[in-house]
C-alpha cells in the first residue's frame, strides 16, 4: 500500500515519484494526498466519474483554452486538459506533512515580468478607453506573468514552496501542489469557483484588493477601502456576473450570502457566497461556469474576445480551475473547484511562471492596477524566494479584522441598496402575479447571460420562460411576450450581424403588435427604430446604480451601458404610435419608454443593483399583458 511519504521520499532520493497531488482545504488539519495515473481528455464531459464507491475519483487540471467548449474566443496555446485518476487517497496530518516537506530556500534566476510596468499601464489605458468606454463590457481582467528559472530540482523546489505557503499564507481556499509528470503547479488560491455537494451548488466571487503588510494593517485605511466606490462596485459587478452563471446551473437561481472579508498574509479581499439547488451533472456545471468573471470580466463571452485582443499569449492554466470530482456516500456526484490564481507553474526543466491579473473597471487607474498585480503575486513570490514575507504572515492573523464591529458594519451596509430578490430565500409562487399562469415569454439573448437572471425573475412573477440566442430566436408563435435582451456592442453600427438581426426582430415584433419588452441593448435598438438618436456616453454607466424616474415613480436600478438614446420631450409620436418616455432631466437620456404593445428599459431590472427591479418588471407586465403590478412596496397583488 502507498505510504503518505512515498512521493516525498522519492523526490528526496532523486527519483521521479510519478503523478501525485497534495491538497489542503481551508481550515483543514490535514492534507489530502492523491496518487494515480494522469491522462488527457478533449472535453470536460469526457472526465471519468465512475459510480463504484464514494470519495474523490478524478482531479482535473483545466486550462483556460477549455473555454472554447462554450464557443468563446481565446489565444489557443494548446495546453491539455489533464486529469489524475485517483487510485489512492490518504489523509496526512498537517504537522506530519510539514515535517516531511523540504525546509529549504528556493533559488531562482532571471526573474522579471513578461510585460513591464509601463507596458502594462498602456494596456490598461487601452482597455479603459477602447473596451469599457465603447460599451464592450463592464470590467475586464488582463494578466501578465512573472517568469524566472528555478535552480536545482524543480519538484523539490515546489515542495519547499508548498511548505512555506502552508506555514506563511492564510485565507486560501486550497493550498496545493499538483505534479502530472509534464508540469508542476503549486499555489494558494483564495477563491472557490464552484462546488457541488448534497445537491447544493455554490460559487464564491471575490473582488477588491486591500494591500497591507501583515501585522501592520492600518485599520482606518481598511475602512476607507471598504467604503471605496471603486472597490464596492467591482464586487457588485462580479456578483452580478456569477449570479448569471448560477441562473443557468441552479434550479431557482442563486441566493446571495455575505459579504465577508477574506484576510490573507499580504492583502485582503471582499467576497460573497452564492448558493442554489442543483441536479445537473457536475461536469455540465463546470462547463457552464467556465470561467469566473473575477479572472475574465463581464459579460463573459465578450470578455473573452477582449482578452484575446489585448493579451499577447495564451493563459495556459491561469484563470482555469483545479476540479476534484467524486461521489458522496449516497452515490451523488460531488465537485470542488478552486480557481487557478496565486499559482506557480514549473516545468520539469525549471521554467517558472507566476501569472497574475488586475480587474479593470471604469474607476480604474493605471498606477492602481499595476500595483494590484504586484500585490496579488506577493504571496506566491515570497514562497518562491522572489519577494519578502509579510511581517505578520502565519497560519492565523495577529488581529482578525473580519470580527471588528466597524468592519462588519461596513460590509453589511453594502447590501442595503441591493435587490432583495437575490438576497432572500424565495418561496416558489410567492411573487406570482394574478392571471399569468400558463402565459409564456421568449427571451432573446444578445450575448449577455443577464438573460438567465431575467428568466428567473419573470418565472417568479408567473410566466413560463424560454431563452434562445440571438442568431436563432426560433418561431415566435406561442409566446405571449418576447423580450429582446441585453448584450455588448455599439447599437449604432449598421452592419454588425447581431445589430442587424436584432433590429429586424424588433421591427417584426413592432409590425405584428406582439407584446415586446426590450432591455439595455434591445432598448437602444428599439429607441433607434422609434426615431430617437443614440449617443455614446461621455462616461460609461457600467455597474452603476441610480435613482431614476420610471413612468412617474422613482426607482433604484442598475445600469451596464456606454450608450443611450436621448429625447427632448416626455412624449412623442413615432412610427408605431404614441410613446411615453422617462428621461434624465439633465441630459435627456431615455431610461425607459413604452407604447402600445411595447416597452424598453435602458437599465437591468434583473441586476443585483436594481433594488426595485422586480417592481419595475411587474409594472411592465401590467402594461404589456394587462395584468396587475406589484405595489409600491414590492408586494404582488395576487387576488
Automatic annotation (TrEMBL):
UniProt domain Glutamine amidotransferase: residue ranges: 442-620
EC number annotated for this UniProt entry: 4.1.3.27
Domain annotation Chorismate-utilising enzyme C-terminal: ranges: 118-376
Molecular functions (GO terms): transaminase activity
Protein name per the record: anthranilate synthase
Reactions it catalyzes: chorismate + L-glutamine = anthranilate + pyruvate + L-glutamate + H(+)
Enzyme class per UniProt: lyase
Cross-referenced InterPro entries: ADC_synthase, Anth_synth_I-like, Chorismate_C, Class_I_gatase-like, GATASE
Keywords carried by this UniProt record: Aminotransferase, Lyase, Transferase
Amino acid at each position: 500500500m502507498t505510504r503518505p511519504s512515498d512521493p516525498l521520499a522519492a523526490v528526496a532520493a532523486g527519483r521521479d515519484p510519478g503523478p501525485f497531488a497534495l491538497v489542503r482545504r481551508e481550515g483543514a488539519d490535514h492534507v489530502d494526498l492523491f496518487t494515480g495515473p494522469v491522462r488527457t481528455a478533449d472535453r470536460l464531459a469526457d472526465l471519468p466519474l465512475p459510480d463504484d464507491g464514494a470519495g474523490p475519483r478524478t482531479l482535473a487540471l483545466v486550462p483556460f483554452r477549455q473555454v472554447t467548449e462554450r464557443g468563446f474566443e481565446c489565444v489557443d496555446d494548446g495546453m491539455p486538459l489533464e486529469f489524475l485518476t485517483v487510485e489512492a487517497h490518504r489523509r496526512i496530518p498537517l504537522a506530519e506533512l510539514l515535517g516531511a516537506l523540504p525546509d529549504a530556500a528556493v533559488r531562482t534566476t532571471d526573474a522579471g515580468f513578461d510585460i513591464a510596468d509601463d507596458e502594462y499601464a498602456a494596456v490598461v489605458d487601452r482597455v479603459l478607453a477602447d473596451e469599457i468606454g465603447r460599451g464592450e463590457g463592464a470590467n475586464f481582467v488582463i494578466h501578465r506573468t512573472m517568469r524566472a528559472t528555478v535552480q536545482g530540482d524543480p519538484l523539490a523546489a515546489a515542495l519547499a514552496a508548498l511548505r512555506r505557503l502552508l506555514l506563511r499564507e492564510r485565507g486560501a481556499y486550497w493550498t496545493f501542489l499538483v505534479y502530472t509528470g509534464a508540469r508542476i503547479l503549486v499555489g494558494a488560491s483564495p477563491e472557490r469557483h464552484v462546488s457541488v455537494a448534497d445537491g447544493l451548488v455554490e460559487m464564491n466571487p471575490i473582488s477588491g484588493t486591500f494591500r497591507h503588510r501583515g501585522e501592520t494593517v492600518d485599520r482606518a485605511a481598511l475602512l476607507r477601502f471598504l467604503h471605496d466606490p471603486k472597490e464596492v462596485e467591482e464586487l457588485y459587478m462580479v456578483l452580478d456576473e456569477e449570479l448569471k452563471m448560477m441562473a443557468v446551473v441552479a434550479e431557482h437561481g442563486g441566493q446571495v450570502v455575505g459579504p465577508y472579508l477574506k484576510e490573507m498574509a499580504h492583502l485582503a479581499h471582499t467576497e460573497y457566497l452564492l448558493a442554489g439547488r442543483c441536479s445537473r451533472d457536475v461536469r455540465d456545471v463546470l462547463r457552464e461556469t467556465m470561467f469566473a468573471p473575477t479572472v475574465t470580466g463581464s459579460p463573459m463571452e465578450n470578455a473573452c474576445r477582449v482578452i484575446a485582443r489585448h493579451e499577447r499569449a495564451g493563459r495556459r492554466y491561469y484563470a482555469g480551475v483545479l476540479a476534484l470530482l467524486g461521489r458522496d456516500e449516497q452515490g451523488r456526484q460531488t465537485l470542488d473547484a478552486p480557481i487557478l490564481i496565486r499559482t506557480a507553474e514549473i516545468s520539469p526543466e525549471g521554467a517558472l511562471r507566476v501569472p497574475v491579473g488586475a480587474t479593470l473597471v471604469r474607476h480604474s487607474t493605471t498606477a492602481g492596477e499595476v500595483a494590484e498585480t504586484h500585490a496579488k503575486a506577493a504571496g506566491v513570490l515570497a514562497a518562491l524566494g522572489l519577494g519578502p514575507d509579510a511581517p505578520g504572515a502565519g497560519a492565523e492573523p495577529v488581529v482578525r479584522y473580519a470580527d471588528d464591529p466597524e468592519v462588519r458594519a461596513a460590509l453589511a451596509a453594502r447590501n442595503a441598496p441591493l435587490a432583495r430578490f437575490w438576497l432572500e430565500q424565495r418561496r416558489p409562487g410567492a411573487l406570482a402575479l394574478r392571471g399569468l399562469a400558463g402565459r409564456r415569454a421568449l427571451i432573446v439573448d444578445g450575448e449577455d447571460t443577464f438573460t438567465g437572471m431575467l428568466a428567473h425573475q419573470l418565472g417568479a412573477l408567473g410566466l413560463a420562460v424560454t431563452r434562445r440566442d440571438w442568431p436563432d430566436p426560433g418561431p415566435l408563435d406561442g409566446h405571449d411576450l418576447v423580450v429582446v435582451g441585453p448584450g455588448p456592442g455599439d447599437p449604432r453600427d449598421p452592419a454588425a450581424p447581431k445589430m442587424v438581426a436584432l433590429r429586424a426582430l424588433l421591427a417584426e415584433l413592432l409590425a405584428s403588435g406582439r407584446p415586446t419588452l426590450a432591455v439595455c441593448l434591445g432598448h437602444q435598438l428599439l429607441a433607434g427604430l422609434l426615431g430617437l438618436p443614440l449617443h455614446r456616453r461621455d462616461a460609461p454607466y457600467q455597474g452603476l446604480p441610480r435613482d431614476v424616474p420610471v413612468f412617474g415613480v422613482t426607482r433604484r436600478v442598475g445600469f451596464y451601458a456606454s450608450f443611450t438614446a436621448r429625447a427632448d420631450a416626455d412624449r412623442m409620436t413615432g412610427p408605431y404610435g404614441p410613446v411615453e418616455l422617462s428621461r434624465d432631466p439633465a441630459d435627456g437620456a431615455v431610461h425607459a419608454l413604452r407604447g402600445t404593445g411595447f416597452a424598453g428599459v435602458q437599465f437591468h431590472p434583473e441586476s443585483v443593483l436594481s433594488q426595485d427591479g422586480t417592481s419595475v418588471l411587474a409594472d411592465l407586465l401590467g402594461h404589456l399583458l394587462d395584468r396587475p403590478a406589484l405595489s409600491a412596496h414590492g408586494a404582488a397583488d395576487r387576488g
